[in-house]
Amino acid sequence: MAVNLSAPEILHPVRGVRLGTAEAAIKRPGRKDLLIIELAPGTRVAGVFTRNAFCAAPVQICRERLGQGGEVRALLVNAGNANAATGRAGIEDARATMAAVARLLGCAPEQVLPFSTGVIGQRLPVHRMIDAVPVAGASLVADGWQDAARAIMTTDTVPKGASRRVQTTQGLVTVTGIAKGVGMICPDMATLLAFIATDARLTQAATQALLRQAVDRSFNCVTVDGDTSTNDSCVLMATGQVGTRDLDVGDPDYATVAAAVTEVCETLAQAVVRDGEGATKFITIEVKGARSEGEARQVAYSVAHSPLVKTAMFASDANWGRIIMAIGKAGAEGLDPHSVSVALDDVTLIERGEPHPDYREELGAAVVARPEFTIRIGLGRGPASVRIWTCDFSYDYVRINAEYRT
């Protein structure tokens, strides 16, 4: 069940982008599971991908294509099959589907980027996908973002999208994005596909820098279960339909566009956690007083990944012993327990490493019974801080993943 999350009401069209969907019966009949995103000529595309050593065939292809430069005219996305751990055959399968899209749009196959999500270790149903490509092509429309968000879902319960419009000296710029993912979610991207488009005109370097900045502040600040997927991909597409000059890093208009892209990415990242498999609580973890941002992240993720902490939160049990256990095992070198503080929202549990004299169990229990709350951790030894988002572990997390292939 999603925590305070509903389907997006408005996803603004982005000039230079058309989207079309079709049913290829990849996961099961009766649902659309194939998406084509067509891009205007001259669109600048940047990507950030999983660091999992078993990265899927589409990830390998996308990295190679984007590394070589050259124009991208379309994205092909399928749900229900990850095309991961499929060897050379997986690469050839992806290329066959890319060629089908290229024939449809009249571009070169290398101008099509493939993306997949779903079960690992199975070959793509290439013929069904190729047959579905013309159907998706016939449905290409500028306002197809809602259908696109639904087509890329796997175990998601709610389609995820966000949209912003900002005024620049070049004109009104739109940023719209969609994402999928509810499990196998961990920083450095996680079974997470995200596609963000803007009609701003950016240099290639600015497009990549903007995406990296936005991802570091959003998708790399979430975790559901600590598992990093084989297929994580986040793509930013800048169609250049607004304005007469390319924006580069340092331009005031670049800062305006970057803020909008980051806001869209943060909304999508939080939606992934809110829809985490079996989630009943949306939890923010703030760590302050660290020696470095890396140390702050180390502590935050140690708490966020702890099954004991996550199950206590599901039970509305303010078991602070599990929190300090997770802080202590994080590996922060030379951490002095007597400098550590812990609070749930504004209720202080631990101060200078000891229970706060005014703390009572019912105060903490009242906080963790809420659907949303913050675990605040102070290390008391430096200026660095970090904020991440996670969720609890419920019975349904086990059920969903136990039944995933059945």
From TrEMBL:
Site (Cleavage): 190-191
Name of one Pfam family that matches: ArgJ
GO CC terms in record: cytoplasm
Residues of the active site: 191
Subcellular location: Cytoplasm
GO molecular function, one term: L-glutamate N-acetyltransferase activity, acting on acetyl-L-ornithine as donor
Source domain of life: Bacteria
Enzyme Commission number: 2.3.1.35, 2.3.1.1
Major location category of this protein: cytoplasm
Record-annotated site: Involved in the stabilization of negative charge on the oxyanion by the formation of the oxyanion hole: 117-118
Subunit architecture: Heterotetramer of two alpha and two beta chains.
NCBIfam families hit by this protein: ArgJ (TIGR00120), PRK05388.1 (NF003802)
Similarity remark: Belongs to the ArgJ family.
PANTHER family: ARGININE BIOSYNTHESIS BIFUNCTIONAL PROTEIN ARGJ, ARGININE BIOSYNTHESIS BIFUNCTIONAL PROTEIN ARGJ, MITOCHONDRIAL
Name of the protein in question: Arginine biosynthesis bifunctional protein ArgJ
Organism encoding this protein: Fontimonas thermophila
Designated gene of the protein: argJ
